[in-house]
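Quick one: structure tokens for this chain, please?
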Amino acid sequence: PERWRPENAGQASAAAWMPFGLGNRNCVGMRFGLEEAKLTLARVILRFRFERSAHAKENDQPEVFAIPIQIIPKHVPVRMVLRE
């Protein structure tokens, strides 16, 4: 959808992305979906090792922007290496 394009940044309402809905009639698969996401992340972390990318410079620091609850890196130069 066009609302996620960079040139439209900041124009979407705060409620534009609610994958499971809100309130009493939210998605019945919400808990299942969240558990699947957690399990997938755990499998990736167990199977791969994260290393500094060859494209990263020695003094390269991730750009960070803060929102009220989280600090989210904008760019992190890493690569995934299969664990042995």
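The CA atoms of residues 35 and 41 lie 10 Å apart.
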